[in-house]
Design brief:
Blueprint (H helix, E strand, L loop, with lengths): L1 H17 L2 H47 L3 H16 L3 E7 L5 E7 L17 H8 L3 E3 L19 E9 L2 E10 L7 H44 L5 H12 L7 E8 L2 E8 L11 E3 L8 H8 L3 E3 L19 E9 L2 E10 L7 H82 L1 H4 L2 H31 L7 E4 L1 H18 L3 E4 L8 E4 H17 L6 E9 L6 E8 L40 H11 L3 E5 L12 E7 L4
Parallel strand pairs: 13-15
Antiparallel strand pairs: 1-2, 1-5, 3-4, 4-5, 6-7, 6-11, 7-8, 9-10, 10-11, 12-14, 15-16, 16-18, 17-18
The structure holds adenosine-5'-diphosphate.
């Protein structure tokens, strides 16, 4: 302007000197030329100024980007920078997620944003149009105004420029700038801001990548720590509490609950962040609901996490009285064995607090949580099972002790009864034997028969009493054995001789297989005599007339035998499978007591059921074994029985 004034003065002076019309014309021409030069100089200066500011902003933006790798800080820095450098009245930065939903925002110049977090884009709005058409959109400016777009100007604003933040064809967000001036954005401004928007988009993309990477690293470390923390206990209640505590280090929440399936319902089993006076544990959600909007059912059905940016807009959401109002919600299924066993429910009191990004760490966490829960459930079951087992073992131990006490009482009774019976029996036996030798008796056949009956009855009773005493001794481990070299062959032959009359009476054939190489064994001769007498008498008793009894031997142990096995087989009535072991317990008989005959070797003569108990006691005292085997019990088919006795050749 100083040049213009100077030129005007020079032109006026020349006109004064020349005093003519030509001079006036020259003067006007000079003024116009000067005006043109000045305008273009002003434009150039303004343009240069804009470029300078762009360069400054760009460099400052670069510094902010380096200083703020953190996302939220970066957004705030960008809007502040643009506002201070260009003196705009409003700068807003709206970030969008995959669904073009506003996920984050930063703004300066106004308190209320044009769009809130969680809002969907509207194509009729400037921000929506810029994002969807991927180009700059203006309001109150012929340059880039589009028909059909509703201006959404903030109070007292007159022009708006919305610029998409693009990486290739991907829209990361929108930069919205507003001014109180009308038509504030010319082509130069738009170009400069577009270039800054492109720089911002790259910075945001890098910040996202940085954050994602840092998040992944942090998540990996956190999940490792969480894994350790969750596996630190198997107590179900502790695991439930731990899960919600550890969850906070993965995804932030104001309150969270853990819901598990119980009888077709989702029941809250643990909660955190609820005020102490609320009762969140009573909330139950039905899994039979057919409401398509039911968020719990949706997670159950899809087996995927669900983000609700604003639950207050959800028709079915019930606000629990006494709790601060929930805004954002994140639900994560707990899966085990491809089945939803429950879910995590996270609430924030601010809107749009959860994004798709949060579902990834939350889902990874849920996998660990489900494993920890499953382990705790298993442990719980095993623990319960162990307790039940311990209880049952205790019950059985008591029962066994009781049985042992009863058994001891029985043994004591047998012992006392046998001792008490033995003395009078010995007297009866002795006197009847003496009577049988008296002349007065021998001369009278009837009296002789009577006294003989008394004598034989006393002998039989004596045998039974001896058996009772033997059983008592075995039970009290008071058998007095004298080990010496015993020839089993001789022993069995001796017994054979004593039983010869019974065998003949019952037309039974006793066969002893050849025993040439049978060594002598170390044993108590009287004990073994009792054993084989009982076994042979039983074979006689339980084999019908005309049957066969066979005795075989086997040497056991290679190359030098250590044991001898004696097998007594008969062609008798056999033993039912369920009784094969029981017959060795005292007082056990398979036949009916009422059918017992008194004969020692009569068919099915029965006895008090002590014989085999004595046999087993004596054999075990010899460190041997005895058992019976038989195809079964059949009085018609006569399958027979085999009694096996295994005795060591030497006693250690
Ligand atoms: P008992 O005094 O009744 O013979 P044991 O202890 O000798 O008592 O035998 C117990 C039961 O075992 C007998 O009542 C009988 O039912 C069964 N038993 C024993 N030996 C034989 C056998 N050789 N054949 C079939 N049953 C037998």
């Amino acid at each position: 302007m100083a040049a213009l004034a100077g030129l005007s003065v020079v032109a006026w002076l020349a006109a004064q000197l020349a005093g003519g019309k030509l001079v006036v014309g020259l003067m006007i021409t000079a003024v116009v030329i000067t005006l043109i030069i000045e305008t273009s100089r002003y434009r150039t200066l303004r343009h240069l100024n804009l470029l300078r500011r762009q360069a400054q902003t760009s460099s400052a933006l670069g510094q902010e980007i380096t200083a703020n790798p953190d996302f939220t800080g970066l957004l705030a820095a960008v809007v502040n920078l643009l506002q201070t450098e260009f003196q705009y009245d409003y700068v807003g930065l709206y970030l969008l997620d995959e669904n073009l939903l506003v996920s984050r925002l930063a703004q300066v110049g106004q308190t209320v944003p044009l769009l809130s977090v969680g809002d969907f884009l509207d194509t009729r709005q400037v921000i929506g149009a810029a994002a969807l058409q991927r180009e700059a959109i203006c309001v109150n400016n012929d340059l880039c105004e589009l028909p059909g777009i509703t201006p959404a100007l903030l109070p007292r604003m007159h022009s708006e420029l919305a610029l998409p933040l693009l990486i290739g064809q991907k829209v990361l967000g929108v930069l919205d700038i507003q001014s109180r001036e009308a038509a504030a954005f010319d082509a130069d401004h738009t170009l400069v801001l577009q270039s800054l928007a492109a720089q911002t988009a790259v910075a945001i993309r890098n910040a996202v990548l940085y954050q994602r990477e840092a998040g992944r690293r942090h998540l990996a470390e956190t999940l490792y720590d969480i894994g350790l923390a969750l596996s630190g206990t198997l107590n179900r209640e502790e695991v439930l509490g731990n899960i919600l505590e550890q969850l906070a280090s993965v995804v932030a929440y104001d309150r969270a609950a853990l819901l598990l399936h119980e009888d077709g319902q989702l029941e809250i089993v643990a909660a955190r962040g609820f005020p102490p006076d609320t009762q969140p544990l009573q909330i139950r959600v039905s899994l039979n609901s057919d409401d398509p909007d039911d968020i719990y059912m949706t997670i159950h059905r899809t087996e995927k996490p669900l983000v609700i940016p604003d639950v207050t807009k959800l028709p079915g959401w019930t606000h629990v009285a006494g709790l601060p109002e929930a805004k954002s919600w994140l639900g994560v299924p707990l899966l085990h064995d491809k089945q939803v066993i429950g879910m995590l429910s996270l609430v924030r009191e601010t809107g749009g607090a959860y994004s798709h990004e949060d579902t990834i760490p939350a889902t990874t966490f849920a996998v660990q949580a489900a494993v920890a829960l499953h382990n705790a459930e298993l442990y719980n079951k095993i623990d319960q099972f162990n307790r039940q087992l311990a209880y049952e073992v205790e019950q059985r131990t008591q029962a066994v002790l009781q049985l042992a006490r009863l058994d001891q009482a029985k043994t004591d009774f047998i012992n006392v009864a046998a001792h008490e019976l033995r003395t009078p029996l010995t007297t009866i036996k002795g006197y009847s034997q003496m009577l049988l030798q008296e002349k007065i008796i021998t001369e009278n056949s009837l009296q002789q028969e009577l006294v003989s009956g008394i004598y034989h009855g006393a002998v039989r009773l004596h045998d039974i009493v001896n058996n009772m005493l033997n059983v008592a001794k075995i039970d009290n481990q008071a058998l007095n054995l004298h080990f010496q070299s015993v020839s089993l062959v001789h022993l069995l032959e001796r017994i054979h001789l004593t039983l010869a009359s019974s065998l003949a009476e019952r037309s039974l054939l006793l066969i002893m297989e050849p025993t040439a190489d049978l060594p002598e064994i170390e044993a108590d001769v009287e004990g073994l005599h009792t054993v084989f007498s009982h076994l042979l008498m039983n074979a006689i008793k339980y084999t019908p007339d005309g049957g066969r009894i066979v005795i075989r031997h086997k040497l056991i142990g290679e190359p030098s035998p250590s044991h001898i096995e004696v097998i007594l087989s008969d062609t008798g009535i056999g033993i039912p499978p369920e009784a094969r072991d029981l017959i060795f317990s005292k007082f056990y008989q398979t036949g009916q007591v009422a059918l017992h005959s008194t004969g020692k070797t009569k068919f099915k003569g029965g006895g008090p059921g002590l014989g085999l108990a004595i046999v087993r006691g004596i054999i075990e005292a010899h460190n041997g074994k005895v058992w019976a085997d038989s195809p079964g019990y059949d009085e018609a088919a006569l399958p027979g029985s085999h009694f096996h006795v295994v005795l060591p050749i030497y006693q250690s």
